[in-house]
């Protein structure tokens, strides 16, 4: 009963995806540019496709997971005539415009298109912590939702094919910003204490503070940043202290410069509405 699936691209992520389908009992066809990467999967029961064309022919549901859109285009363009009637699920990381363009092109070839953003590393595939954002064809998503659940919790974010990539990149921005801040933190602490500091203090602190991101309903309406408990003028002074401490510890301040530079200017000016000026200044720096 389980629909057959084709996986094109067997890098670390594609291998995890193919393994999940094999474990779940879906007939699984695989193709990779470097054919040897399919060997272990074939030993576990996958069918090896000799060509991309054969891989597209083998299943109605085709999952594509390669390095970038240049690879996607290179694989699909010569096989456009094989796309009719297929549901193409492209899990390759990219920009919203690339997803829209590929979606329009694939649809013009007679395929249904779903773009996806994988919010997991390969070892998380098939676990409840993993989720994948999807956008594009709602009917294709509804038809194959059970099959998509094999990989990760599926989250359909809209019929505009670019929305999965947009949400994916936005979430990655949050992640990279957090990691960059954490690197600054451990640089301040120093290499000897960094590991212990990270486990016992930094991770619990970041987990607790993640909750302050949730805007209350009134603040969401007003578009304001919560400020009653922790006024921003107080926070500006704390951040100015971070930059000074970073300097005296010999740690680069570049990472936080977007926040600290305008804050120092405001504090130095010593007048105006600190809170409003600060938000404006940070907004300008980021833009
Ligand atoms: P890998 O570097 O492990 O694998 C890249 C894959 O792309 C290989 O199968 C490679 O083939 C193929 N490829 C590259 N260029 C071409 C080309 N020109 N033509 C055909 N195939 C090509 O990357 P991942 O598997 O980790 O990543 C794949 C996608 O998944 C990326 O878009 C990534 O952003 C996304 N992703 C990965 C995560 C991760 O933690 N790994 C997390 C979330 C998303 P070959 O083996 O022949 O080189």
What does this structure look like?
The structure is a single chain. Strand 4, helix 4 and strand 5 form a beta-alpha-beta unit. The longest helix has 27 residues. This protein folds into 2 domains: 158 residues, NAD(P)-binding Rossmann-like Domain (Rossmann fold, 3-Layer(aba) Sandwich), CATH 3.40.50.720; 119 residues, N-(1-d-carboxylethyl)-l-norvaline Dehydrogenase, domain 2 (Orthogonal Bundle). It is elongated. With 287 residues, the chain is of the alpha/beta class. An 8-stranded mixed sheet has the order 3-2-1-4-5-6-7-8, with helices on both faces. The chain contains 12 helices and 8 strands. Helix 10 packs across helix 11. NADPH dihydro-nicotinamide-adenine-dinucleotide phosphate binds next to helix 1 and helix 4.
Report the structural category.
alpha/beta
Strand content: 5-15%
**How would the global form be characterised?**
elongated
- The helix content, as a percent range, equals 40-55%
Q: Helix segment count?
A: 12
Largest sheet, in brief, is: 8 strands, mixed
Query: What count of domains describes the coordinates?
Result: 2
Bound molecules: NADPH dihydro-nicotinamide-adenine-dinucleotide phosphate
Stretches with pLDDT under 50, minimum 5 residues: none
Distance between the first and last residues' Cα: 51 Å
CATH architecture of the largest domain: 3-Layer(aba) Sandwich
Could you report the average pLDDT, rounded to the nearest whole number? 88
């Amino acid at each position: 009963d389980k629909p057959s699936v084709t996986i094109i691209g067997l890098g670390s992520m594609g291998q995890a995806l193919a393994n999940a389908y094999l474990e779940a009992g879906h007939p699984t066809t695989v193709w990779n540019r470097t054919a040897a990467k399919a060997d272990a999967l074939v030993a576990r029961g996958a069918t090896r496709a000799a060509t991309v064309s054969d891989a597209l022919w083998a299943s109605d549901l085709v999952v594509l997971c390669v390095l970038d859109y240049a690879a996607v285009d290179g694989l699909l363009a010569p096989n456009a005539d094989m796309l009719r009637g297929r549901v193409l699920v492209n899990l390759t990381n990219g920009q919203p415009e690339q997803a829209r363009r590929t979606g329009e092109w694939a649809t013009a070839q007679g395929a249904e298109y779903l773009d996806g953003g994988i919010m997991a590393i390969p070892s998380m595939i098939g676990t409840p912590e993993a989720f994948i954002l999807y956008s594009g064809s709602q009917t294709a998503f509804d038809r194959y939702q059970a099959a998509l659940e094999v990989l990760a919790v599926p989250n359909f974010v809209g019929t505009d094919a670019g929305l999965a990539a947009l949400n994916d990149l936005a979430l990655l921005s949050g992640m990279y910003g957090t990691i960059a801040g954490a690197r600054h933190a451990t640089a301040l602490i120093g290499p000897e204490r960094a590991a212990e500091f990270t486990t016992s203090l930094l991770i619990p602190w970041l987990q607790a503070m993640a909750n302050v991101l949730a805007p209350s309903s009134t603040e969401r309406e007003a578009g304001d940043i919560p400020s009653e408990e922790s006024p921003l003028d107080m926070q500006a002074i704390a951040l100015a202290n971070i930059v000074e401490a970073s300097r005296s510890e010999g740690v680069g301040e570049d990472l936080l410069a977007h926040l600290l530079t305008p804050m120092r200017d405001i504090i130095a000016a010593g007048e105006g509405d600190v809170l409003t000026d600060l938000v404006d200044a940070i907004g300008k720096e980021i833009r």
